[in-house]
From TrEMBL:
Residues 143-161 have a biased composition (Basic and acidic residues). The chain crosses the membrane at residues 32-57, 78-101. It holds the Pfam family FxsA. Keywords: Membrane, Transmembrane, Transmembrane helix. This is FxsA family protein. GO terms for cellular component: membrane. InterPro entries: FxsA (IPR007313).
């Protein structure tokens, strides 16, 4: 846990130093403009992903096809990149752009099969029986009427009273 705090301080130092380096390289006004553009793009990305990101993740899971880990984590990566763009500094902006790269992996189900494991794909649609996927079960039935015995009839009449 202490390494997380040290890492955060190092990242904070690098962010400040990146602002100074970029300001020295392209000038203070252009640096400020880049930081404002980065913040506004992060806000717009965060507004765009809102509920639609969660719905996109749900649709990817419910699609019933083999989906990659990239497709499942895309809404999370997108929102994290938006938050990183909103933070001042250019190191987090570089990490945000790396998160937005379209890196695609193998589908989750194929990854398990290629490793030699027989793995159940939780995202695949279930087959509903051996009759071609129908929900109809064919069969015959007969209705029989059972007449209550005298003891049961007395009990039923007693409960009605």
């Amino acid at each position: 846990m202490q390494f997380l705090g040290i890492g955060f301080l190092v990242l904070l130092f690098l962010e400040i130093m990146s602002i100074v380096w970029v300001a020295d390289w392209i000038g203070g006004g252009a640096t400020l403009l880049l930081m404002v553009v980065s913040f506004v793009s992060g806000v717009l990305m965060l507004r765009h992903t809102g509920l639609s990101g969660v719905l996109l993740a749900g649709a990817a899971v419910r699609s019933g096809q083999d989906i990659s880990l990239y497709q499942m984590l895309w809404p999370i990566r997108y929102a994290l990149a938006a938050l990183m763009l909103m933070s001042p500094g250019f190191i987090s902006g570089v990490f945000a752009l790396l998160l937005l790269l379209p890196i695609k992996g193998r589908p989750v189900a194929q990854a398990g099969r290629n490793a030699g494991f027989q793995q159940h794909n939780p995202f695949a649609r279930q087959q509903k029986g051996d009759n071609g996927g129908d929900d109809v079960i064919e069969g015959e039935y007969t209705v029989t009427r059972h007449e209550p015995s005298a003891k049961q009839q007395d009990y039923i009449e007693h409960k009605r009273d």
